[in-house]
Amino acid sequence: MTQPPGTQAAVDPRELAGRRALVTGATRGLGAAIAARLEAAGARVVTSARHAADGPVAGTFVQADVSTADGVRRLAEAALDHLGGVDVLVDNAGAQTRVPDGVLALTDEDWLNDLSGSLLSAVRLDRALLPGMFARGHGSVIHIGSNAARWPQPAAVAYAAAKAALHAYSKGLANEAAPHGVRVNVVSPGVIETSGLTQRLAALAAEHGGDLDAARAEFARTFAIPLGRPGTPEDIAETVAFLASDRARYTTGTVQVVDGGLLSTL
Ligand SMILES: NC(=O)c1ccc[n+]([C@@H]2O[C@H](COP(=O)([O-])OP(=O)(O)OC[C@H]3O[C@@H](n4cnc5c(N)ncnc54)[C@H](OP(=O)(O)O)[C@@H]3O)[C@@H](O)[C@H]2O)c1
Predict the structure, then answer these.
(1) Fold for domain 20-192+233-258?
(2) What residue spans define the domains of the chain?
(3) In terms of pTM, does the model score above 0.70?
(4) Positions marked active-site
(5) Which of 143, 161, 235, 260 is buried most, with the most CB atoms less than 10 Å from its CB?
(6) Dihedral angle, C-alpha 194, 195, 200, 204, nearest 10 °
(7) How confident is the model over 222-226, as a mean pLDDT?
(8) pLDDT tens digits, residue range 57-106?
(9) Is 94 in the pocket of ligand 1 (CB under 6 A)?
(10) At CA 15, angle to CA 255 and CA 60, rounded to 5?
């Protein structure tokens, strides 16, 4: 029996004590859940996004656009100023341009938007922060990839290609980082229920008597998700917290698929 969504595994509030974490794209969705989970495990956390959050979120917020070189530079400096070093880096912010008219309708601007937001954002931030991890001889880097890297959806091919590149880059980086005691892994989510999907599900539920869980189950049947529901941001945060911790001390260069069984291949 899997744990129902919304419930939490017991968190050891000391597991990440003394660790300093930076999470990008953390004012909502997966990033907000990841920041909260790392903080609950005792880490000091800096979060970032282009705009401040509507409500309270974990950590200390730095406003920065990680799709630009200047935004990454300012974020890295602010995080180092605040934390004194970064032990856990979660490159979570991504960019997805949806073009319904097919791959050939994607413009250079669309491609550059997705490559800057989903690939170069991580490359640049890693370049700024991994030398410090190497010098200290430890660190955990987690890139939030996507199942789209292996299963491109027609309306978002540039995004899928950028995530595939992120997965490949992560493997190469993991090989170089390992001798320095630094681990690099990818978490590859399937369909996760962030606010946009909740709104779609609420509309679906309204058509069927208002039962949101029934709408989730219907959605899962339609998209053939074996575990019978979309994922939650907390499902992803749990795997990120594991990879950040010493429990994952022998895990590097991997892609951890967290998708309720959605990908039909190994
Ligand atoms: N949700 C899913 O089903 C799913 C599935 C597979 C993979 N993923 C991946 O998981 C990651 C998080 O997705 P999500 O669904 O949680 O997204 P989301 O709910 O749209 O949240 C995105 C977060 O990133 C920030 N952000 C976006 N662009 C940014 C930029 N250029 N610089 C700094 N911050 C930026 C946003 O704040 P601002 O807008 O204020 O900047 C927000 O805090 C992404 O990499 C996505 O590709 C998600």
Answers:
(1) Rossmann fold (3.40.50)
(2) 20-192+233-258, 195-230
(3) yes
(4) 159
(5) 143
(6) 90
(7) 97
(8) 999 999 999 999 999 999 999 999 999 999 999 999 999 999 999 999 99
(9) yes
(10) 85
